[in-house]
Amino acid sequence: MKKIGILFGKERSFPEAFVQRVNSKGIDGIVAEPVRIDKALQGQPSGYAVIIDRISQDVPFYRTWLKNAAVTGTAVINNPFWWSADDKYFNNCLMTQIGVPVPKTAILPSHDRPDDTSDESFSNLAYPLDWEGIFQEVGFPAYMKPFAGGGWKNVYKLHDKEEFFEKHRETGQLVMLLQEEIVFEEYYRCYCIGGKHVRIMPYEPRNPHHLRYVADFAPSAEKLQEMTDIVLKINRYLGYDFNTVELALRDGVPYAIDFCNPAPDADIKSVGAENFEWVVETAANYAIEKAQANNGGDNLTWGEYVKRSAGK
């Protein structure tokens, strides 16, 4: 019997529906359940052929436990090694190299020194930075947000340099991005599962959270295909099995705004019944596919960037 597990926190609608959907299919030799961990010993298999990870970004214990599961043969979705190495600034840098439009972005050293550092720790950092050069490149209004993380935490919209310096002081030891504002005509949130299944969802981030998937626009067939190709390309290079990509259309050009969401919102109350059904069904089918293909060894998905770099 091959077990498919889902590792989650306080969310309920997606994990419960996922387990029920897999088991309802009655696939011989396949069963799904919530992951249960009663001990963690090095080199011992997890007992799961596949694990869907929905929570390790918030629980370091789970992240390192998942790495052991991966080393001992589990197909962990998403790859815990890559997810540990990834960040939003690197993602933007990679997009500039593969031809995906992204907002102009600068990374900023933390306003406060990290613990256990001193002025001497920053001998290679110019002081002050070339703030005028940064502001000229990015422009205002701009958004400042952490280079890693999500959930719209510590995100600021800034209108001028005076507001920038005021808000930057509030960020403490966080490493922040300063990013060009893309004034968009349409906005889309795009699920990608298995690196091949894409759902393009009209999305209005300016609405209250529970109404963001309620939008009065839709893409043309041509634009739908263009955005699908971009979503597939991004996930192919990053190597995510389960991700959402946010695309903002400015003058008809899709800009990738946020595309590192490896535990994306899948709650029925926010994504809506139709999107929820697609996510549950597609994730269940993909997990079953991965479980059936698991015959030991490395069952992780590695992105094109890593594979091409390792092949040099």
List keywords for this structure.
four-stranded parallel sheet, single chain, globular, Rossmann fold, alpha/beta, ATP_grasp_subdomain_1, 312 residues, ATP-grasp, ATP-grasp domain-containing protein, nucleotide-binding, four-stranded antiparallel sheet, 12 strands, Dna Ligase, domain 1, 10 helices
Provide structural commentary.
The structure is a single chain. By secondary structure, the chain is of the alpha/beta class. It starts with a strand and ends with a helix. The mean pLDDT is 95. The protein is built from 10 helices and 12 strands. The strands form 3 sheets. Strands 2-1-3-4 form a 4-stranded parallel beta sheet, with helices on both faces. Strands 5-8-6-7 form a 4-stranded antiparallel beta sheet, sandwiched between helices. Strands 10-9-11-12 form a 4-stranded antiparallel beta sheet. Among the domains are: 2-79 and 290-300, Rossmann fold, CATH 3.40.50; 104-180, 2-Layer Sandwich (Dna Ligase, domain 1), CATH 3.30.1490.
